[in-house]
Amino acid sequence: MLLKLWQALISGLSVGSIYALIAQGYYITYITTGALNFGQGEFLMIGALFGLTCYVVLGLPYALAILGAVLVTGLMGIVLERIAIRPVMRHALSLSWVLSTVAVSIILKNAAVDLWGPEQIKFPSPFGEGVVQIGPAGIFPQELFIIAVALGTVFAIQIFLRRSLLGKALMAVAFNRNAAAVMGINVPRMVVLAFVLSSALAGLGGILIAPITFAWAYMGTVPGIKAFAAAIFGGLENPIGILIGGLIIGVLEQLFGIINSNLKEGITFLFILLALAIRPTGLMGRQEIVKV
Amino acid sequence: MRLPVFACSGPSDWVRVAAAVLVLGLLPVLLDDPFFILVLQSLAYLFIVTLGLDILVGWTGQISLGHAGLYAVGAYTTAIMSTRLGLPFWVTAPAGIALAGLCGAALALPSLRAKGPYLAMVTIAFGFMAEVTSNRWSFTGGPMGISSIPPPTLPGGSEMTATQYFWLIAGVALLCHLLAANLFRSRIGRTFRALQSSDIAAEIVGINVYRYKVLAFVISSVYAGIGGVFFAHQSGFINSDTFVFSFSVSLLAAVLIGGSGTLYGPLVGSVILNLIPTVFASLYKYHLYIFGGIILVTIVFLPKGIVGSLRQITWFRRVHRETPDIASDACIPDFAPGSLPHGAALAIRQLCKSFGGIRALNGVDLAIAPGTIHGLIGPNGSGKSTLVNVLSGVYRADSGAMMLGDCALSPKRPSSMARHGVTRTFQNIRLFNELSVLDNVMVGFHLQFTCGFWRHFLQTRAAIAEEAAFRRKAIALLAFVGIGERAHDRAQDLPHGQQRMLEIARALAVRPRLLMLDEPAAGVSPAELSNLMRIIRAIRAAGVTLLVIEHHMDLIMQVSDTISVLDFGQKIAEGTAAAICADPKVIEAYLGAPVAPGEVVAAGA
Asked: What is the pLDDT of residue B597?
């Protein structure tokens, strides 16, 4: 039993850090534009499949494949912002972006089926199929690699946002768009940057997680939604909350998976419903005071 | 001749209904092909679901990405009851619809405070829970689903044919449309659309926003449940493959493509989206490109949807022009003295309110005599707006007591203050922007309507008569504040000064005993200022107690009977205009303490 718990904890943390990685993308675009990419999951899928092509078909090293996946999804972020965000943010209807980003994700899914076929494809782990003994349990090295890279990236993004000039400019746009524009910050470019970062984070998540699941056209939707649950749980404007939310949801899922595989699928949503019933702006989000 | 229900519908409406009945009746006869009838059935019930979603999304501005779940509740309930218990369609269908409505009510519970993405998450989570439950639970048949769901039976006991079933679905769809149309033009629909613009403005005229959001969710869920029930008995077999996230998305897409917030948008949207798979059946490989492409292109280029965009074309707009001007019945002395309830005295004792470490109100005492104009001034940050927010129930005081007449107030929500006869206007104008000027005032009558939901839903004669009476009163109120000729314009198209007047007219519709005006002169031109003073004095003459917050000293000094001055959350002076102007404490609060000449030199050196 203890063995199972230990294994569930490690797998939970690795899946959870992927959720946290994707959710960090929601955070960055939400604070800068008030919108987010409901197709993050499909960007994750493209990251995985493109990475697969680089790594398996072209035989590039895993590190280069990661770089390729991040670059391609980052570039796609520019396109996404152009066709699905910028044109609809002027609209009166506040939820246009929900459907425009979902529309892009639908198109991406079809494209992925055309390019890579509808089947699940095995992504060989760069660390081999063996397990390493940590404590009492055998753990896939890929899981540890995921935790290290994903959490490292989350922290690197936060340092970028808080310490670098470019990152501070982005945060300035988030705090006050007009004031940032008056200070000479190119706001539209910062918005593009936010979507590039967000998309690249999803792409990175995709190539990281593919070796422990499979890579295929329909792999993205559920992780994308679960990452959204993590972001909502932590509070969309709270990066630390989002990180914790991602890890909690990942671990919770694996723990309940020990008891019953049906529970594993449903627990995230039950959990987020309960959390929102208690605190409607996320457990760690802040309550807004309405200014009248 | 007018029917006791649907009394709003004139001859031209009934001609249209008759035409619709004729078309729906003949379609399956003329195109007698099993596949075609199946498609028609699907279109009819998906239209019902889409219409229900539009009521939620397009009217009230909520969001649902979980409607597939509500659809599933209807479908599974009727399927399980009819296959396991052998109950007839006519029993299981209402049960499925009712259960879907109940689930909608439960789903709406967090909608009070959860907004935007957080509300989206609630509905997504519900949708996924429904999907997982139907897929994994043995009771719902798991992935195998439930099969041999019988078609409905006729009263004689024989099973309905496909054509008869289509007529049933189409009949229900037509009824759903007519009821939605009733709702749209009644006060219920108007209240829904008001919520989309401003929750707080709706609250201060007495609308319990929470209750109306729940109502919108329930209506929407009932429509979804109806669709689910029809689906289950159409296909005879259901499993979790239908009730997926992407189905919820396509419903929402149908609403937006057709035109959210319009009556015919859901029809256009659901027909287009649901015909795509049929029309492009040969291009199955590309159907997701087509589907996604259509959504993206419409949202980017037709943000108001197809119907919404058509309505913007002038020719259509003239056709759809709202009801012609009602003779503005100036003879109805709606605003004569005595037509409003008597103004009440307001007494506040030791009111405190803090935000974090800032004490915005620090033990304020205030007494306002009934039927007077009480001015409230003070430098920026002195607590004036906080006081109005506490008095109108927007904020809750930390401590202290408020008495209106001899009734102690402890408001939980602004709407409960409106019930006591306390309402207000806003410093930052909060109108129902998308509604007409007239409808803004009509929303203000919310508490005075005596006909409830069902009468307005069915549009009984009493509801129609009541609506017409309030329309005349609304026109009179608009004439009183001087914007009668703008009654049919959209509120957001008015210039700033007229918007302030509209806020006053809306507040008067509440029949207040205490009316609070928060900076009514801000942004009002000098020419309009005299009109504003006339209005304020006339309201007093009608017997209403007024509390006026203003930075415009001319106005406040001229109209106020008594003036109180706040500074740092405390009352520092009170009296007549002349007394206040001479009060050294007031001068100090505004201009700073007098400085001895020596100190000035020292500071300069």
From this structure: 60
What kind and span of H or E run contains B304?
Answer: none
A230-242 confidence digits (pLDDT tens): 999 988 888 999 9
The reply to whether A232 falls in a domain is: no
**B146: β partners:** B238
Residue A246 reports pLDDT greater than 90:
yes
Please indicate if any CB of chain B lies within 8 Å of the CB of A284. no
The predicted-structure confidence for A48-80, as pLDDT tens digits, reads as follows 999 999 999 999 999 999 999 999 999 999 999
**Is A31 a member of any domain?**
yes
Beta bridge partners of B407: B404
Q: Token digits for B596? A: 């001895």
The tokens for B587 are 């001068």
Determine whether the interchain pair A103/B112 forms a contact, defined as Cβ–Cβ distance below 8 Å. no
Q: How many domains does chain A have?
A: 1
Nearest CA of chain A to the CA of B200: how many Å? 9
pLDDT digits (tens, 9 = 90+) for B197-230: 888 999 999 999 999 999 999 999 999 999 999 9
Is pLDDT larger for residue A89 or for residue B75? B75
Q: Which of B300, B333, B570 is nearest to A103 (CA)?
A: B300
Is residue A178 domain-resident? yes
Q: Which of A30, A273, A290 faces B122 most closely, judged by CB atoms?
A: A273
Residues contacting residue B358 through CB under 8 Å, at least 6 positions apart: none
B253 touches chain A (CB under 8 A): yes
Give the bridge partners for A236, in sequence order.
none
Say yes or no: B389 contacts chain A, CB-CB below 8 A.
Answer: yes
Q: Please tell me if residue B590 touches chain A, with a CB cutoff of 8 Å.
A: no
Reference B466, options B441, B449, B483, B453; nearest CA is: B449
Query: Which among B118, B287, B288 has CB closest to A276?
Result: B118
Two tokens, residue A80: 């996404």
Q: How many whole angstroms separate alpha carbon A151 and alpha carbon A249?
A: 15
For chain B, domains (ranges, CATH) are 37-152+159-244 (no CATH), 346-435+500-597 (3.40.50.300)
Task: Determine the residue type at B324.
Answer: P
- In chain B, which residues have pLDDT < 70? 1-2, 112, 314-342, 595-605
**CB-CB under 8 Å, A232 with B118:** yes
Between CA A68 and CA B378 the distance in angstroms is 62
- Is residue A292 very low, low, confident or very high in pLDDT (cuts 50, 70, 90)? low
Q: Is residue A285 part of a domain?
A: no
